[in-house]
Write a structure and sequence with these properties.
The chain is α+β, with helices and mostly antiparallel strands. It is 13% helix and 29% strand. Strands 1-2-3-5-4 form a 5-stranded antiparallel beta sheet. Strands 9-14-16-15-12 form a 5-stranded mixed beta sheet, with no helix packed on it.
Length: 475
């Protein structure tokens, strides 16, 4: 692992464990500021432990379910995978790890990016695959619940809970990449090759249906409502399920077909995830994030953008559009949009900043977040509203100005989007250009040409027209 200074973007080589910790599958930062690590050789996330800010091991409290590393290793297939003997020395170079939380995972090479998170109240959520038989009993599942993938939950004091989200069989069992829990105990899961029932199109792309590998694989973010510390929160199953269950479709979308499944206990499903292939694929899957206001930040690879979703599943912002590292400063300042991504793969966000892994541009971009409106509430209940200048500055070269993010709204039921206001020719061309680039990446060159030609035909004097002509020649 390495650590970077978020203010300067430079490697923080003063960190004692800089470049030293190996075999880390996933990590999360807890509300206590500690680093929670999910680790194991060959991408098998069998162990969970934590370090303080200085990189020193911090044990879980007495009475937790943490077990000695030696005991955990006896449960691991040392004969099958010769690198098991390197753990824990290759996972923590400052000495021996006395105890770890054992996930019960037998081991499978594609488990390296299933999902791991620590809630604002310290609960640990991990998605694992291929468990030992005794682990199913500890999770208090039924015979029907013996699935290759399960969501496990530990309390802040390290005690294993019953399974977080159950399933009826392999097809309806959890299959995705990404897991978070909010302060109310709700669990947010990404399920790959799944969309809300009745749709075959992703949020933001209205006329191109999903397919097996289009946009890196499609998926849906699903919220399971918290039950005050009781588990499971719900389950996946085939068919329509009980009353109130969220209805979904599962499959590749071939010939317009998806198998009907349901998610009971779920509150909503957002069908706008990309970069999520099948559970048996070892590809680097996309990663979303959740901030302290329970807003989900989603790398929308099909739009070269970041989508922001509130706690009720409403999209409240879209940030950025297609662009490259060689976009000129003059071009960016003229368009006044700032954020440009070729292929956003992962995102992390707080209330003040956003970091995006722009995969194809080989960079991490930081943007300072601003708000259209802010409300300050005094201790006496008085309130004042201000409207600061919209926008912030991204700290990568070339220097760009980030589009502003709406303030987090109060929780409201989903509502229809308002009618769009009249847009300038520049904005129209920019939107068509972004759509053309999305279609190009999806392999739909015909649709990309259509939008590029619209720019040329309807706004021939705009600068985008010249760019569109060059792009058509390349296509």
């Amino acid at each position: 692992m390495v650590r970077f200074d978020g203010k300067t973007g430079k490697p923080d080589k003063s960190w004692p464990l800089f470049g030293q910790v190996g075999n880390v599958v996933e990590y999360a930062v807890g509300p206590d500021g500690m680093l929670y690590l999910m680790a194991g050789p060959l991408g098998h996330g069998a162990f969970i432990y934590r370090l303080d800010r200085a990189g020193k091991y911090v044990p879980f409290p007495e009475g937790s379910d943490a077990i000695p590393v030696a005991e955990a290793l006896t449960k691991s297939p040392k004969g099958k995978y010769p690198t098991w003997h390197l753990f824990p020395g290759n996972a923590y170079n400052e000495g021996t790890l006395p105890k770890v939380l054992f996930t019960g995972m037998k081991g499978h090479s594609n488990t390296h990016e299933k999902g791991f998170g620590v809630s604002p109240t310290g609960w640990i959520v991990a998605v694992v695959e291929g468990l030992y038989e005794d682990r199913y009993a500890r999770l208090k599942t039924t015979k029907d619940g013996k699935l290759p993938r399960v969501v496990q939950v530990w309390s802040p004091d390290g005690k294993l809970q019953p399974v977080g989200v159950a399933g009826k069989n392999d097809l309806s069992g959890y299959n995705g990449h990404g897991a978070h829990m909010d302060r109310d105990g709700s669990i947010y899961l990404v399920r790959s090759f799944t969309l809300p029932r009745g749709t075959l199109k992703l949020d933001g792309i209205a006329d191109v249906p999903v397919r097996l590998r289009r946009w890196g694989g499609h998926g849906t973010l699903i919220k399971f409502r918290g039950l005050g510390g009781k588990f499971p929160l719900g389950e996946f199953g085939e068919g329509d399920g009980p009353a109130g269950a969220v209805k979904l479709g599962s499959g590749f979308g071939d010939n317009g077909k998806m198998k009907p499944i349901y998610a009971s206990g779920a509150q909503w499903a957002y069908g706008g995830m990309t970069g999520h292939l099948v559970g048996t694929c070892s590809c680097p899957h996309a990663r979303h994030d959740m901030d302290g206001y329970t807003r989900s930040w989603i790398p929308a690879q099909h739009l070269s953008s970041i989508m922001v979703i509130d706690a009720n599943g409403n999209r409240i912002a879209r940030l950025g559009r297609y662009g490259n590292v060689d976009d000129t400063t003059a071009d960016i300042e003229e368009d006044r949009d700032g954020l440009r991504f070729a292929l956003p793969k992962a995102v992390a966000a707080s209330d003040t900043a956003m970091y995006v892994v722009d995969y194809d541009n080989r960079r991490v971009m930081k943007a300072k977040l601003g708000y259209h409106a802010e409300e300050t509430v005094g201790l006496d209940g008085s309130a004042s509203v201000s409207t600061p200048a919209p926008v912030a500055t991204a700290t990568v070269a070339p220097k760009v100005s980030a589009t502003s993010v709406p303030a987090a709204p109060a929780a409201t039921p989903p509502t229809a989007a308002p009618a769009p206001s009249a847009r300038s020719p520049e904005q129209v061309c920019r939107g068509w250009w972004s759509l053309a680039m999305s279609y190009k990446r999806a392999g739909r060159k015909d649709k990309a040409r259509d939008y590029l030609q619209k720019i040329i035909d309807e706004h021939p004097k705009n600068d985008y027209a010249a760019r569109a002509k060059r792009e058509i020649a390349r296509l």
